Amino acid sequence: MTPPTDSKSSARLEARISQETKALVQKAADLQGRTLTDFVVAAIQAEAYRVIEHHQTLKLSREDSEAFVDAILNPPKPNDALKSAALRYKQVMSV
Q1: How far apart (Å, rounded) are the C-alpha atoms in residues 26 and 90?
Q2: Which residues contact 29 (CB under 8 A, 6 or more apart)?
Q3: What's the pLDDT tens digit per position in 5-22?
């Protein structure tokens, strides 16, 4: 899921952190045999993907998902308001 990095194009990111945080992150990088920069870039990239996926995923309760499936499999018949809206759409869109 991680796209390859292009060494020809790069952007700089700077952050101020405490000595304690830097030591913690450095220890984690050392444990993985990575440079501090490589560890930080990989960590923020993974977290960015996680956050984006979390916000782009729709999660329904069991009751809501059953209602959704039921509505798809057994749609109600169009009421007058829906029929009127469809007619207006066809007129406006010249369909």
Answers
A1: 63
A2: 35, 36, 38, 39, 40
A3: 555 678 999 999 999 999
- CA 21 – CA 48 distance, rounded (Å): 20
Task: Please state, in angstroms and rounded to a whole number, the distance separating the CA atoms of residues 51 and 6.
Answer: 23
Tally of residues, the chain? 95
Angle at CA of residue 18, ends 15 and 22, nearest 5°: 80
For CA atoms 65, 70, 73, 77, give the dihedral sign.
Answer: negative
Cβ atoms of 36 and 29 closer than 8 Å: yes
Q: pTM of this prediction? A: 0.58
